Amino acid sequence: xxxxxxxxxxxxxPTHxxPTHxxTATHRRLWTLGLFRSELxxxxxxxxxxxxxxxxxxxPVLIGIAVKIETSDGGSAGPGEGxxxxxxxxxxxxxxxxxxxxxxxxxxxxxPFFLPMAVGVxxxxxxxxxxxxxxxxxxxxxxxxxxxxxxxxxASTLVFCVIATVTVAASALxxxxxxxPLGDLTxxxxxxxxxxxxxxxxxxxxxxxxxxxxxxxxxxxxxxTLTNSGIAAMATTVGLLITVxxxxxxxxxxxxxxxxxxxxxxxxxxxxxxxVHYDDLIANLRLQGLYAAVFGAAAWARFTTKDISA
Amino acid sequence: MAPNGPxxxxxxxxxxxxxxxxxxxxxxxxxxxxxxxxxxxxxxxVPALASSGDPDLPKITAQELIEKIxxxxxxxxxxxxxxxTDLGIPxxxxxxxxxxxxxxxxxxxxxxxxxxxxxxxxxxTSGTHTLRVAADGPDKQKLSILDDAAxxxxxxxxxxxxxxxxxxxxxxxxxxxxxxxxKGRDKGADHVVPDxxxxxxxxxxxxxxxxxxxxxxxxxxxxxKVAGRDAYQLLIKPKTTNGVTSTVGSxxxxxxxxxxxxxxxxLTPRSGGKAAIDAGxxxxxxxxxxxxTFDFKPGKGTKVxxxxxxxxxxxxxxxFEGLEDLGGLNVIGEGWSSIATFEMPGGQGLTIPKDSDxxxxxxxFLDALGDKATGKFGSGRVxxxxxxxxxxxxxxxxxxGAVDKSSLVNAANAAK
Lengths: 310, 416
Known about the structure:
Number of domains of chain A: 1
Helix content of chain B: 25-40%
Number of domains of chain B: 3
Largest sheet of chain A: 2 strands, antiparallel
Structural class of chain A: mainly alpha
Number of helices of chain A: 11
Structural class of chain B: alpha+beta
Order of helices and strands of chain B: HHEHHEEEEEHHHEEEEEEHHEEHEEEEH
Oligomer: heterodimer
Shape of chain A: globular
C-alpha cells in the first residue's frame, strides 16, 4: 500500500495523463506492477500460504520415503507386483529406477487434489478475504481502479500456481536425487532420452501442471467477488473442485466432461511420450484459457459493479 | 473519492451518473455471458466443423478405387489413429481380458507379464483409444496405445519384437525366430507384429475387401477430408442372400486420393446408431519416421519377459483344452452370411437341470444375458451384441455369426 499512497490522486483516468504530470504514464506503469508486487508479497507472506507450500513440499518426501521403504527388500514398487497391471498411481513403478520419476509421480499425485485445493484457497481468499478483513475499501481508496486490483489479484494467484507446482517438483527432485539413482530416462513410449533433456521435460511438465490450474484460479477469483466472507469463498471453490472431480469420474456423464476444467489435467504426461503428443496438451491450454476468459470476465463484471461495503 | 462508487469517475452529475451506471452494470454482464456462449460453442462445435467441407475430386469408379488401394506402395508413414469400438458387449475390455488373459497366461502368477500383447489388444475392443502408428518398410513398425499417463508400445525392428508397458514398467521380448518355430503359444507372438493386428485402417480395409463378392455391393460414395488429406469414400454394403440378413449395415472406407492408403474405416451395424467400429487417422505423415522411433532398449529396472520363458512356463495343454473341446467347428454359408456352428464342451447347453439345487438367481442371470428362442430345432438362448449374435441350443449346439436372430434360428432349423 505504501506505493499507492505516494501516487498522485488528482488524475484517476489512466488514459488521459494531464500535462501537469508529464511522468504520470511511466509512473503508472511501474505502479501497476507495484500493486501486483505488493499483492504477491502480501500473499506469499501469509502463514496460510507458507503452510500450504510446506504441505506441498512434504508430500513428495513422504512418497519418496514410502517407496524407498517398500522396496528396501529388493522388490519392485508399484503396480507391477501381484499380476495387477497399471492399477496404481501413474509413474510409481519407475521411481526406484530413476529418481526423476518421483517428480512426475508427485505431480500426478498432487494434481487431482492438493495443488488445486491450495490454489482454490489462495484464489478464493483474493477479494473476499480483503472484504472480510475490512481492508478492501482501503485498497479501493487508492485510485487503482477495480479492474486493475482484480488483475493484480488474479496475477498473484497465477504466480502462486507456478510457485506451488515448482515447490512440489523441486522437493520431489531433491528427494528423488537423495533416495534413488538418477540417469537417462525411459520415456513412456519406451525410448531413452538423456538426463538433461529429461530435466527439461520435467520443467515443461511443471509448467503444464501450473497451466492446468489457470482455469480453477479464475473460477476461484470469481467466487471471491461474490461474497464478503473469505472462508465461504475458499470453501465454495474447493467444493466446486470436488464436485467437478466427482462428475469427471462418472462415465455416464461423459456428455459434460469436455466442459470440465479437470478434463485434460493428465495431459501433462503426454510430454513424456516420444515424440511428444501435443493434442491433449493444446486442448488443455485452450480449455484453461476459456475458463480464464469466462470467469475472468464474470469476475470483472461483478467486481466493477459491486457495492463495496466492507 | 467514494470507496463504494462503481468506478473511479468524477461524480459531478450524480443523476445521469446513476442512470448510466445502472445501464453499464447490466452491460458488463453481457461480456461474460458472451464469452461463455462463444466458449461453449467452440468446445461443442469444433469437432463438427473440423469434419465438414468435402473436397472436390475427379470422379472414380469403385473398381479403380480398389485398384488404387491394392497398388498403394506406401511403406513409410507415421500418425495418430483414433479407434472407437462399440460392439454392444458391456465391459468386454475388463471381463474378456481377465478371462482370456488368465487363460493365456496359465495360472496368472509369477510368469505373467502385463506386457504380453494379448490383453492389450483385447482392450481395443471397447471404448475409444488413441493409437500411434509408425512404419518404415516391411520390417520396422511401431504401434502404441496411448493411455492416461501411460503407454503400451509394440515395436518391431527387423527380427526383434518388443512390447513395452509403461504403466507396469514391463517389457516383453520375442524374436522373429521364436514366432516361426513355436506352436500354439506363439499365436501371441504373431499378434505382436503390428500388421497382423487389425488396428490400422489399412488392415481393416483389407479384411473387409476380402469379403467382396456377389453378396456385396461396393460403390464410391463421395469424398471426405481425413486427417487433413483428401479422400474418396468406398461404401461396402452386404446384400441379403438366401434369406440370411447380416447385422453389418455398411462399411465405409476413406481412401487417400493421392496414394491409395486407407485412412478411415467405419462399420455401422444394420440396427443403426453409432458406428460399431470407427478407426481413422487423425494425423498422418507419409515421410519416413525418425529411425530412433524403432529403437528399444529396456531401461534399468524394467522387467523383461522373454517369449520363450512364457512358453516354457505356460501350461500349454491346459490352456487350449477348452478350445479343443469345441468339437465339430463348421461354417454354414459364405461371405457376410456365414454362420459358425460348433458343440459346447461337454455337449450340454446353457440350461440348468431341473432337479439340481442351483439357486434360481442363476437361471435369472442366464435369462438376463440371452433371450429364449424356440423353433424346429428345439429351444435355446440367443445372445446378442450389436454385430455378432449367437444361438446356444439346449442340446449344446452353438450357432454364431454376424447375422440377425431369425437367420440363426433358420440355420438351426435347417441343421435338424
